[in-house]
Design brief:
558 residues, Formyltetrahydrofolate synthetase, domain 3, 20% strand, Rossmann fold, four-stranded mixed beta sheet
Length: 558
């Protein structure tokens, strides 16, 4: 019987974190990093400032086809690729997001990789890690508390309690908290109003945390958060409550990037964690820039399919940070492609070339989309045990016809030995000249930006928005926010807003349900279809199987 991810992780021979830092020439000094136990460290921002004149390494973005319940293994492939690059003699660091407790105890599971391509210590990373998410949650909810406290003590800013747009957050899937009433219980508790919770990874604080270049940039952005409006619709900002100072204090240690290691004792930086279906889906700018100064090749991932994570990485993160990927890896699995070809999950165990060929339209659309950004692209087939040689050859031949490099990756089973071909392909692609460009310009209207994403990347025929939505977008523009990029919140399971539409559907419409101004993070969130910014738990959550055994070890975490 194959070992579980947690069993493999538990058998890992981890090295003390200083040995990992030595491998990337980080000195053993108190002013450089703080150890968090034996196997994790936080790099100090003062040291990062000293690295600013060093030459950057190459940046590799790992994305994927549209996800299915069959799994794609994007994080696993990112870890495997970085290990593979180190295996062929290159100095590489993998940059990942921190896992959220919501999926860990919900349906998706942990986010530390799998098999023999994992980051460790796996249990710590998937649970409380270094407490960054708790700090973000606390900072966010401090602002919530300051808003209601200001209203209670006389409301000098004339906040309209019906127009408070700042919700509370919790790092757990809890649908019961989506819409709530607060300040109940009489005059001593304040003025009753409607409120709600989002999951922490959807917090604007999380987005700001991941897009900030330093502590002062973080504080400035927090101050620019729009928290509410007056009765005459004048915006009120966090800085009007002097909230940015104490909130930044809560984040001063969290903002420092976390260094851990892979199973093969290669360095990994894990920092920040917005979801890509409801936020911008990338690890922190600070983490990526740190890795680029400390290695020759940085492997980073963007959440879910390329229509979500990769688009936001390129149109939001790169636009705000000046980063530019040297190449893009699209992860695909035979299983997921067969689901896009019409099969159910219980039909995936047998060879089915017809379904596979039908499902290739999804891969082709993602390849086409990445090319619109002017970047070199390669395909990584994340190998599963039941994949047949004929099925693998179908995908290989398909990519060759498109003149796209493709490799079969067995990192889950073999670690770095299973990704050497992909690593060599990536090294070659990183030497190619590319003309990176954004999908849309800053100066076009907000609605036109949404239309461009919907039509160019999703294959939609039109965008539907009622008069209220269009007026909100116009107000954002009139208030000076026209140049902001768009962050679409929609289902990850389809190019459309209907999760049942697999493959590469065309002619569908993109219905906008809500728009939110993230004036601190500096983007506009466009909520589409039925997507929720506070997910719920499934009928049988992963939490049902998680427990402590008689040895004091965690079981069921994956």
């Amino acid at each position: 019987m194959a070992k579980t991810d947690i069993e493999i992780a538990r058998e890992a021979k981890m090295k003390p974190i200083q040995e990992i830092l030595n491998s990337i020439n980080v000195p053993d000094k108190a002013e450089v990093y703080s150890p968090i136990g034996r196997y994790i460290a936080k790099i100090k921002l003062e040291y990062l400032e000293k690295l600013k004149d060093k030459k950057d390494g190459k940046l590799i973005l790992v994305t994927a086809i549209t996800p299915t319940p069959a799994g794609e293994g994007k994080t696993t492939t990112s870890v495997g690729l970085s290990d593979g690059l180190n295996k062929i003699g290159k100095k590489s660091i993998v940059c990942l997001r921190e896992p959220s407790l919501g999926p860990s105890f919900g349906m998706k599971g942990g986010a530390a990789g799998g098999g023999y391509a994992q980051v460790v210590p796996m249990e710590q990373i998937n649970l409380h890690f270094t407490g960054d998410f708790h700090a973000i949650t606390s900072a966010h909810n401090l602002l919530s508390a300051l808003i209601d406290n200001h209203i209670y003590w006389g409301n000098k800013l004339n906040i309209d309690v019906r127009r408070v747009v700042w919700k509370r957050v919790l790092d757990m899937n809890d649908r019961a908290l989506r819409s709530i009433n607060i300040n109940l219980g009489g005059i001593a508790n304040g003025f009753p109003r409607e409120d709600g919770f989002d999951i922490t990874v959807a917090s604007e604080i999380m987005a700001i945390f991941c897009l900030s270049n330093d502590l002062y940039d973080l504080e400035k952005r927090i101050g620019n958060i729009t928290i509410a409006y007056t009765r005459d619709k004048k915006p009120i900002f966090a800085k009007d409550l002097n909230a940015q100072g104490p909130m930044t204090v809560l984040l001063k240690d969290a903002i420092r990037p976390n260094v851990t290691q892979t199973l093969e004792n290669n360095p990994a930086i894990i920092h920040g964690g917005p979801f890509a279906n409801i936020a911008h889906g990338c690890n922190s700018v600070l983490a990526t820039k740190t890795a680029l100064k400390l290695s020759d090749y940085v492997v980073t991932e963007a959440g879910f399919g390329a229509d979500l994570g990769a688009e936001k990485f390129l149109d939001i993160k790169c636009r705000k940070s000046g980063l530019k990927p040297n190449c893009v890896v699209i992860v695909a699995t035979i299983r997921a492609l067969k689901m896009h070809g019409g099969l159910n999950k219980d039909e995936l165990k047998t060879e089915n070339l017809n379904a596979l060929k039908k499902g290739l339209v999804n891969l082709e659309k993602h390849i086409s989309n990445i090319k619109k950004f002017g970047l070199p692209v390669t395909v990584a087939i994340n190998h599963f045990v039941l994949d047949t040689e004929k099925e693998i050859n179908v995908v290989i031949n398909f990519c060759k016809k498109l003149k796209i490099k493709v490799s079969t990756c067995k990192h889950w089973e073999k670690g770095s030995d299973g990704t050497k071909e992909l690593a060599n392909d990536v090294v070659e692609l990183c030497e190619e000249k590319s003309e990176f460009k954004f999908l849309y310009n800053d100066d076009v209207s907000l609605f036109k930006k949404i239309e461009t994403i919907a039509k160019e990347l999703y294959g939609a025929s039109e965008v539907i928005a009622d008069t209220k939505i269009r007026e909100q977008l116009k107000n954002f523009q009139d208030n000076g926010y026209q140049k902001l990029p768009i962050c679409v919140a929609k289902t990850q399971y389809s190019f459309s807003t209907d999760p049942s539409l697999k493959g590469a559907p065309t002619g569908h419409v993109l219905p906008i349900r809500e728009v939110r101004l993230s004036s601190g993070a500096e983007f506009i969130v466009v909520v589409c279809g039925a997507i929720m910014t506070m997910p719920g738990l499934p009928r049988v959550p992963a939490a049902d199987s998680i427990r402590i055994n008689k040895k004091g070890e965690t079981e069921g975490l994956f």
